[in-house]
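Consider the subject:
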Amino acid sequence: MNALLALSRAIDAVNRRVGRAVTWLILLAVLVSATNATVRKLFNVSSNAWLELQWYLFGAIFLLASGYTLLKNEHVRVDVLASHLSRRTQLWIEVAGVLLFLLPACGLIMWLSWPFFMDAYVNHEQSSNAGGLIRWPAKLLIPIGFALLVGAGVSHLIKCIGCLLGRCPDPRDVHTGKSAEELLAEEIAREAQQREAASHERH
């Protein structure tokens, strides 16, 4: 089990580094989008290459951060039923979900997307839009992104089993702070209280 937990830590380290690097792609995507819109409005000049770069960056953010998102337990869940079960039963559901759904689905997508990328790479596939970009880098993101997600799934599986054996904490307890939704809700509540207090002062 120690070797498996070490493997889990190594996988998590890779996904953590990739996830942190991807945050800079968000900034780059915003700058590219803003610059492209500004140039188009001010000078009536547009470029398909810059437009395609925007969705290349969006695809990179979405795909490359998927493993990091699972590591942080931020994927959307519908736990209406599972939330009423014991934590041990929830862990067994996690194990079954990873083995029966996550890993097979991601493995299938990786297998199908590799020839999709290779065909574009070998044939030097170019965008059909005038001045567009080459396509293989965007298609390469698909197998890479799902490989990172497979790795995160394997790591999550190891940690779930380790928790069931009493060898590590529950992998779902990874939040180091409040979610964006919780922070927004608190901000709205604070503003409502401030408005109410100001209203009482006026009266």
User: Anything to note?
Assistant: The two ends are 67 Å apart (CA to CA). The helical segments are 2-43, 48-64, 66-71, 87-122, 136-164, 180-202. Residues 52 and 195 are 45 Å apart (CA to CA). The longest helix spans residues 2-43.
